[in-house]
Amino acid sequence: xxxxxxxxxxxxxxxxxxxxxxxxxxxxxxxxxxxxxxxxxxxxxxxxxxxxxxxxxxxxxxxxxxxxxxxxxxxxxxxxxxxxxxxxxxxxxxxxxxxxxxxxxxxxxxxxxxxxxxxx
Length: 120
Prior knowledge:
Shape: elongated
Helix content: 55-70%
Largest sheet: none
Radius of gyration: 21 Å
Order of helices and strands: HHH
Number of strands: 0
């Protein structure tokens, strides 16, 4: 199962890098989201994929009985998903405002701060 997850992470990272190399800001943003999802999958793989019970401790016991799932990677990924969604919403608002102001989402054409040089 870990091998399949590693191959999936490799494909997602390759796709995200391909998208992030484009001049279109929306494609860059989608590549960034894909990269964050690949990192979430790596965190899951680092926490080991085991079929275990929830890490609950019975009344009067000091430790859970039997094999339990590791809750730390799940908590980290849940936090990363929430932060990633907030980042996506914020950057989509910025891209929308940039498109309304400049009329383009191509990063080469966004030259408001540094106008094009005229060669003589």
